[in-house]
Amino acid sequence: MLQNKIQEVFNEPGCAKNQTKSDKERKKGCAKQLQPGAAAGGCAFDGAKIALQPITDVAHLVHGPIACEGNSWDNRGAKSSGSRLYRTGFTTDINELDVVYGGEKHLFKSIKEIIDKYDPPAVFVYQTCVPAMIGDDIEAVCKAASAKFAKPVIPINAPGFVGAKNLGNKLAGEALLDYVIGTEEPESTTPYDINIIGEYNLSGELWQVKPLLEHLGIRILACISGDAKYHEIAQSHRARAAMMVCSKAMINIARKMEERYQIPFFEGSFYGISDTSESLREISRLLVERGAPAELLERTEALIQREEARAWERLAAYKPRLRGKRVLLITGGVKSWSVVAALQEVGMEVVGTSVKKSTAEDKERIKEIMGQDAHMIDDMTPREMYKMLSEAQADIMLSGGRSQFVALKAKVPWLDINQERHHAYAGYEGMVDLVREIDKALYNPIWSQLRKAAPWDAREAAQWLP
Fold it and tell me: Same domain, yes or no, for 282 and 398?
């Protein structure tokens, strides 16, 4: 069953890049085969866990050795406006005896203990490498537990060895499609109901956009999966339209919901002023096409005009200070193009953007924004990154935490733009926050001090002066 599901994901028709391949190439999928020991931090299990853990009121139970849960727990700064259960790490912590005799009874007891103690609306069970290799059937255990405890127990069959993180994202989406979406009906619906797919509410970014939608009367029926509740996702099939934020992770959910429930979707971004405005326009346009009153378009334009003016007024002081500053962007996915557009709006120059985790559509958008000669970096080694920074081709680097030490070694300002960040950068308010943080990093006096010669080096040099 797992192999069939993987082949189905590899044949995803919603991916334009996939459709250009031959049948033989399509079966191989997009990711390179992982080598033993090389899957840490990027295996299929990790991808499934980070895709679904932002569902806040669910108990996320990892069936495997304790190290799997230890390595995957809380690896994204997804915020919750309600339940904190998602912040509790649950694991069966299987041992040598479980490997010999099987871990299915152990898993069933763990599910019972969680339900007895926490009574969550659902339990998500994640398969990992060891129980998958010894043959534990988590689908059967979850089905038996659901019947026994009258509670949804959802199997997430994505052991790490089947592929990379992106495959795990999609397998997590398949689990939602198979076991959750469409299983409940909402108490009421409106012509203004939407889904947001591939948004994880990192550092509370969803909350920077939600007030804009609420001002227009638009209701987020479900966000998959940032700040989500189980019942919201179960009822998400009644939305009128959907916005896809990260197509590389969850395009299969958007496409299949359009196919099954006739929910049209588009891919957009809430990074930057222009992209936020375009996304609001497209959401309103789709809702009007599905039956919402036409005056929604006028109210949307009025909101955009007001918010853009307010944002540009607050950014005016920063533009002279940032104009012409060069940025090296080491990220991926939707941020590889959406952040580029945001930076260009304040006059900054992007000298290069990484595309290691980007789709063909992402790369085309980069070319539209930066031109056909855009410097797209597929895989930059730390040595190459250091050389680029030390030769002053960039004034600041925006990347994830793992790259920060290269910037510090090159004595170049650095700002966290990836999933571990502590600041939210979505919407009009987020754009102002992003520019403020870049300005603070660039003009921090520590950099001028750091680039000076050390006092002992200066004294030694003075001895040789005539």
Answer: no
CA 267 remoteness from chain centre: 14
Residue 379 included in any domain: yes
For residue 40, the model assigns a pLDDT of 46
- Phi/psi region, residue 196 (left: phi>0; alpha: psi -120 to 50; beta: rest), is beta
pTM: 0.86
CATH number at residue 394: 3.40.50.12380
Q: How far apart are the C-alpha atoms of 372 and 381, rounded to whole Å?
A: 24
Q: In a 10 Å sphere around its CB, with 0-12 CB exposed, 13-18 middle and 19+ buried, how is residue 136 labelled?
A: buried
What CA–CA distance (Å, rounded) separates 455 from 466? 19
- In this structure, are residues 253 and 246 in contact, taking their beta carbons and an 8 Å threshold? no
What residue type is assigned to position 281 of the chain?
A: R
Q: Are residues 91 and 222 in the same domain?
A: no
Write the pLDDT tens digit of every residue in 420-456. Answer: 788 899 999 999 999 999 999 999 998 888 888 777 7
Query: Model confidence over 173-211: pLDDT tens digits?
Result: 999 999 999 999 999 999 999 999 999 998 899 999 999
Number of domains in the chain: 3
Work out whether the CA dihedral 60, 62, 68, 69 comes out positive or negative. positive
Range of the domain at 281: 193-315
Q: Where are the alpha helices (DSSP H) in 78-229?
A: 96-101, 104-118, 129-134, 138-149, 165-179, 206-215
